[in-house]
Hints:
By secondary structure, the chain is of the alpha+beta class. It has one domain (about 5-150): ph1033 like domains (ph1033 like fold), CATH 3.10.590. A six-stranded mixed sheet has the order 2-5-4-3-1-6. Helices cover about 25% and strands about 30% of the residues. The longest helix is centred in the C-terminal third of the chain and has 11 residues, at about 140-150. It has helices at about 15-20, 30-40, 110-115, 125, 140-150, and strands at about 5-10, 25, 45-50, 60-70, 95-110, 135. The chain is globular, with a radius of gyration of 15 Å. It is built from five helices and six strands. The model has no long low-confidence stretch (mean pLDDT about 95).
Amino acid sequence: MNYWLLKSEPNTYSISDLERDGSTSWEGVRNYSARNNMRQMKVGDLGLYYHSNANPPGVAGICKIAREAYPDYYAWNKRSKYYDDKSSREKPRWFMVDVQYVESFDELLSLERIKDTKSLRDMVLVKQGRLSVQPVKQSEFDAIVRMAGGGGRRG
């Protein structure tokens, strides 16, 4: 199993929205590194659901990969904000995955607290903060779940 961190702005799609819906597609990623990370995801992998562009930003809960990477068809829709005229059905440039709700933390674990934790200082989140989909080591995942008081349910 692999572990990930997926960022979403809470006013766009929060962990509460995911809890309500049960699952959703993770579309609109337009960064090659983030896209490549999504292409490595496997069904059952766990993700930290991160609220970005929030006050404060931080980890709000856990999601699970429910469907492996497939072409992001929003890139082909000229009316979509995610449209990319260089992507086609024959040669898709962008991909998405489906994520499923696992749990919400009682309180958001802030980025500041993560940065202040010695064992988490080498996280991609701390070193490459802007990347919207990033790998997480199991030890980092477990530490964050512990710090947030979550159960970290694996299924």
